[in-house]
């Protein structure tokens, strides 16, 4: 199944123009099996998202995009998170202490929000976002090469803030996932692959080929 693993809803991400109801509607239209709300430094939507998921029967998993001192990191499976910026390694350690999963968001985006070369020094990251629908293709391809070099899981996400970006990239999971417990188990098991939406359907990306410049895709 396909899950968009990095999305922003307007209640807690003030730079988003998306309501949860709209996100679910578009996700269903595109064939996503679930979505993840990863607001900026905030998990305040968790209770509402859980209620809406139960009401609609559409899985919604809430994580966080935390802006560490070295760059953005997506985390799932945590209850506690800092209320101020801290070093990336400290945040990763905090995630791990809670049994969570984390990956570097858009590590080579040219706005000082990615971990960039810090990827080589931090310890404990589970994955890298190698497809980000709001980041240049060149930056995503570089992330794909680093993921291979470092042996990290490869993730795909839209990083959507507007309707037209919902689901443009996603992550393929080999199993069906309905609950947060199943989601965490699948993340830790691995085997995910990035995917992109084109011509009405999702296409799984082979990371090695993409890191070398193929296929030529846009999002």
Name the helix and strand elements from N-terminus to C-terminus, one letter apiece.
EHEHEEEHEEHEEHEEH
Give the averaged pLDDT, no decimals.
96
Number of helices: 6
**Could you tell me the radius of gyration in angstroms?**
16 Å
Classify the beta-strand content into a percent band: 15-25%
Percent in helix: 25-40%
The profile of the biggest β sheet is:
6 strands, mixed
Q: What structural class do the secondary elements suggest?
A: alpha/beta
Low-confidence stretches: none
Principal-axis shape: globular
| Terminus-to-terminus distance | 20 Å
Identify the strand order in the major beta sheet: 3-2-1-9-10-11
Number of strands: 11
Descriptive notes:
- The chain is α/β, with parallel strands linked by helices and 219 residues long.
- It is built from 6 helices and 11 strands.
- The chain has helices spanning 20-30, 46-56, 88-97, 137-150, 180-189, 207-211; strands spanning 2-7, 34-37, 60-62, 64-67, 72-76, 101-104, 127-132, 153-157, 169-172, 193-198, 201-204.
- A 6-stranded mixed sheet has the order 3-2-1-9-10-11. A 5-stranded mixed sheet has the order 4-5-6-7-8.
- InterPro entries: PHP_dom (IPR004013), PHP_domain (IPR052018), Pol/His_phosphatase_N (IPR003141), Pol/histidinol_Pase-like (IPR016195).
């Amino acid at each position: 199944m396909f899950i968009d693993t990095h999305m922003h809803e307007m209640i807690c991400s003030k730079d988003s123009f998306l309501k949860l109801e709209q996100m679910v509607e578009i996700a269903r239209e595109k064939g996503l099996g679930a979505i993840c709300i990863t607001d900026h430094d905030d998990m305040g939507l968790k209770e509402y998202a859980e209620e809406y998921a139960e009401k609609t029967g559409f899985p919604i998993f809430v994580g966080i995009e935390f802006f560490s001192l070295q760059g953005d990191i997506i985390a799932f499976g945590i209850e506690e998170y800092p209320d101020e910026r801290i070093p990336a390694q400290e945040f990763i350690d905090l995630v791990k202490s809670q049994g969570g999963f984390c990956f570097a968001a858009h590590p080579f985006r040219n706005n000082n929000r990615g971990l960039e070369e810090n990827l080589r020094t931090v310890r404990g990251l589970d994955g890298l976002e190698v497809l980000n629908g709001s980041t240049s293709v060149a930056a995503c391809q570089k992330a794909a090469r680093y993921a291979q070099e470092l042996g990290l899981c490869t993730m795909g996400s839209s990083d959507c803030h507007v309707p037209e970006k919902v689901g443009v990239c996603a992550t393929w999971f080999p199993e069906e996932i309905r609950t947060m417990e199943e989601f965490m188990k699948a993340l830790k098991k691995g085997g995910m692959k990035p995917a992109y939406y084109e011509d009405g359907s999702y296409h799984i990306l082979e990371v090695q080929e993409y890191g070398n410049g193929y296929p030529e895709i846009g999002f």
